[in-house]
Amino acid sequence: MTNGPQRGNGDDTGSELVTKTRTVAKRPNLYRVLLLNDDYTPMEFVVHVVERFFQKNREEATRIMLHVHHHGVGECGVFTYEVAETKVTQVMDFARKHQHPLQCVMEKK
Ligand code: TYC
C-alpha cells in the first residue's frame, strides 16, 4: 500500500527523482461502550436507548438489555475514541432528560 506526497527534488530541471513515502496503517485505539445496570430505569427505556443510539433492532436491543440486567454490565458497541465519547454523552443526556439513573461508560479495549 502506498500513499502520501510524491516528493521530487524541486529544482525544476526536468530531471526529477520521484519517491513515494510508504505509510503502514496503524490500528486505531478502540473503546467499548457499556451500559450499567440499576434498579430503577425501566427495561423498555433501555431497549429504546440501545435501538436509538446503537442502531440495534428490537430483538438485539432486548438481548443486550437483559444481559445488562442479569450481569450488571454489557457492551452496546465498539468505536473509536471520539465516536464512543459521543455515544456516552448522548445516552447520559437522554437518560437525564427522562430522569432515569441509567449509566453509560466507555472502556479501552
Ligand atoms: N434493572 C432494571 C429493571 O429491572 C432494567 C435495566 C436494564 C436498567 C439495563 C439498566 O442498563 C440497564 N427495571
TrEMBL record:
Residues covered by the Adaptor protein ClpS core domain: 26-104
A Pfam family that the UniProt record links to this protein: ClpS
Keyword Protease: yes
InterPro entries xref list: ClpS (IPR022935), ClpS_core (IPR003769), Ribosomal_bL12_C/ClpS-like (IPR014719)
Region (Disordered): 1-20
PANTHER family assigned to the protein according to its UniProt record, in alphabetical order: ATP-DEPENDENT CLP PROTEASE ADAPTER PROTEIN CLPS (PTHR33473:SF19), ATP-DEPENDENT CLP PROTEASE ADAPTER PROTEIN CLPS1, CHLOROPLASTIC (PTHR33473)
Quaternary structure, from the entry: Binds to the N-terminal domain of the chaperone ClpA.
Protein name (record): ATP-dependent Clp protease adapter protein ClpS
UniProt source species: Stappia indica
